[in-house]
Amino acid sequence: MEYEDGDVEHDKQSMDELLARGIKSVPVTILDDKVVIGFNPQELAKLFDLSGDIPVADVSTMLEKYEIVLVAAAKTFRQIPADRWDWESPERQRTLGQFCFHLSDRPDRAMNAYNVGVYSNYDRGRTVEDILGDVGFEEVAQYCEDVLKRVKASLDGDASIDLEKVLDTYMGNKTAWEMMDLGLGHSVHHIKQLYAYMGMMGLTPIDPLTEKDFEGIAVPTELF
Fold first, then answer.
1. If pLDDT is split at 50, 70 and 90, which confidence band does 124 have?
2. Are 103 and 142 in contact (CB under 8 A)?
């Protein structure tokens, strides 16, 4: 399939094109006058009329994979030297500290959206400074662990959420189930990127996750 890609971080024309369409979120896929915001496998399959199974985690799988991924993420954060907090990845102007915070913040915001009914652009772009203050990798690891506790309570606790509840999101109407599933895929994709970033910095992750750990979770095929 032929396509054109754009980089809004480094290409003003790409940014101007999105703004002209009233689009303020990336990633975004555009086909003629149809738009899909975010990595949304179900909507992308509809857009391109694709057949085949698209993995959507059931509750037991979601619980298992969230545990694997967020525990590993917190352990990995603690392996990174404090002086790498402000390191910026080549493809995006974002510090490593912000990236690590963001890895587990999307599932947190999915749970928040369940309570308030809305998942906004603000939710997807919260900064570590605004939420946690002047902190380091240890505090971000603790935040990740706290998010995991709340995920487990939301999916399998005494006050587990109604996964069929429809939420108003910047991607359109989505069920709580879809948002928790997308949050899981988001965290998986980012921990893969984190391992790559560590390699760029000359660091070797200790006991990293493998592809087997990610089986059954829909993530982009391209790392960056």
1. confident
2. no
Higher pLDDT, 79 or 24: 79
Closest among 129, 220, 105, 109 to 170, alpha carbons compared: 109
Helix (H, G, I), strand (E, B) or coil at 41: helix
- Rounded to 5 degrees, φ, ψ at 220 are -60, 145
What DSSP element (H or E) covers 20? helix 12-20
| Strand, coil or helix: 30 | strand
Task: Judge contact between 143 and 101, C-beta under 8 A.
Answer: yes
Predicted pLDDT of residue 17? 64
The CATH code of the domain that includes 72 is 1.20.120.450
14-28, 101-115, 178-192: range with lowest mean pLDDT: 14-28
Separation CA 106–CA 181 (nearest Å): 11
Q: Is the pTM of this model over 0.85?
A: no
Q: Using alpha carbons only, what angle is made at residue 152 by residues 171 and 145, rounded to the nearest 5 degrees?
A: 90
Q: What are phi and psi of 95, to 5 degrees?
A: -70, 160
Q: Are residues 118 and 74 in the same domain?
A: yes
**What is the Cα–Cα distance from 115 to 31, expressed in whole angstroms?**
33
Q: How far apart are CA 29 and CA 47, in angstroms?
A: 9
By residue range, what is the domain housing residue 9? Answer: 1-54
Question: Does the structure show a pLDDT above 80 at 57?
Answer: no
The verdict on 79 and 141 lying in the same domain is yes
Q: How far is residue 105's CA from residue 128's CA, in Å, rounded to a whole number?
A: 9
